[in-house]
Amino acid sequence: MIDVKMLGMIFLINFTYVTVSTIRLMLMMKGYRLLAPLLSMVEITIYVLGLSLVLDRLDNLFNLFVYALGFGVGILMGIKIEDYLALGYIMTTVILPSNSQEERTLPNVLRENGYGVTQSMGEGLAGPRVILEILALRKNERNLYQIIQEVEPRAFIITYEPKYISGGFWSKKVQKRLRK
């Protein structure tokens, strides 16, 4: 006999557990030293509850299947929530051919759009290059890419997430935001 309420409860519990787990991991990686451990307490409580429901009823394979389904859907939801929240900052390096007219235009366009840009010269295989270092909020990443591609489609772009930021005008903005 299939207990639909039990299956629904198993799915919901594991879905919630994995979603919370994904968010906790994201917060941990971003350095939220108080919120991540508190969330882990909620996470483990949900986990034990869900696992005990399945282990107490191992004679029904539907319970195990629904538990696994909740796990997969929970990961998907956790990824979507993480994308939506887009916590933190990105550091983007843009490398432009130095013979490009946009080497002078792109930094100005980016600055007009509120991005901090540090510009330097480099040497590539085919000659001199202009290197732009741009620090931006992660939630603005797509907008940043769009501006770069519109102004200079030949740009080589590398993005990574810095863990700590110190100094410069961004640090002052970050400190003000943290105080609020």
UniProtKB/TrEMBL annotation:
**Keywords linked to the UniProt accession:** Cell membrane, Membrane, Transmembrane, Transmembrane helix
Q: Does the keyword Cell membrane feature in the UniProt annotation?
A: yes
Q: Which domain of life is it from?
A: Bacteria
InterPro entries xrefs: DUF2179, DUF5698, UPF0316
**How is this protein positioned relative to the membrane?**
Multi-pass membrane protein
Ranges of residues in domain DUF5698: 22-79
Coiled coil located at which positions? none
Protein's cellular compartments: Cell membrane
**Segments traversing the membrane:** 6-27, 34-55, 61-79
**Which ranges carry the DUF2179 domain?**
115-167
Against Pfam families, the record matches this protein to: DUF2179, DUF5698
UniProt-listed HAMAP family: UPF0316
Its family? Belongs to the UPF0316 family.
Q: What is this protein called?
A: UPF0316 protein ACFO5I_01895
Organism of origin: Enterococcus lemanii
